[in-house]
Amino acid sequence: MLYSARSLHRLFLMAPKPKPHRLHQVAGTSLQSPVKRVRTMTTESSFKDAFAKYAEYLNDLNDKRERVVKASRDVTMNSKKVIFQVHRMSKYNKEEILEKAEKDLAAVADQYMSRLVKELQGTDFWKLRRAYSPGVQEYVEAATFCKFCRTGTLLHLDEINASLLPLSDPTLEPLQLNILDYLLGLADLTGELMRLAIGRISDGEPEFAKRICEFVREIYRELSLIVPHMDDSSDMKTKMDTMLQSVLKIENACFSVHVRGSEYMPLLGSSEPSSFLLGVSDIEL
């Protein structure tokens, strides 16, 4: 059948036309598919790179945590040795014992605290606080213990941080002990002072025990005003209960000497009479 030009034109106009999006799909399949594929591969690659960086960061953080835990454990162990050294003190060897303890404490700072400083300075060291806090608390306890036995005064946080500055790299942010770890170490100090006070009474130094009692009372009084206002104070509240027990033990020991002073007997070998049988009055504190 033959059609005229006008008929063919009419048929063409009446014929259904493909939808634009289908025409786009048919005409652009060979051009757009590679573009989409490249875009997908680029996205997957960026995700892999990001996860690789996160994995590397977490692995480095875990490795650092292990090193910090090891250094903290060494600080704890050697700080305890300093505390045990101080407990060997008596009125006859006080200077010798304290010199040895202070030398050992300086060695703890140079050999072990310096490792903590090296690992933590210049970083967000608060993220690893649980890893190094036990060692720091023990170091604070040993340092304040030595200072009290030497001068009868308290070693402050600013003094401890100043002593750690020479261990830090001056180009990096220095490691500074926080107030919570300092107070936790100070709470542990009262337990050591309680043991020291009992020992001093047994060795015939009730006046020294009295000074310890007054010092521990002051620490407990000050902390009892601070702790209720602390945000993270669960550990501190637990130690406050232990601290109160230490205060009561020192007070009871000093009170017993005061009330029953006429029955107090010196160490064997002492030439100082202190018994009512020898005509000496009660010991006054």
TrEMBL record:
Keywords carried by this UniProt record: Cytoplasm, Nucleus
Subcellular location: Cytoplasm; Nucleus
Coiled-coil blocks: none
CDD domains: TRAX (cd14820)
A Pfam family it matches: Translin
Domain of life of the native organism: Eukaryota
GO molecular function, one term: RNA endonuclease activity
Annotated Gene Ontology cellular component terms: cytoplasm; nucleus
InterPro entries the record matches: Translin_C, Translin_fam, Translin_N, Translin_sf
UniProt cross-references to Gene3D superfamilies, sorted A to Z: Translin, domain 1, Translin, domain 2
Similarity annotation: Belongs to the translin family.
Protein name: Translin-associated protein X
Organism the protein comes from: Manihot esculenta
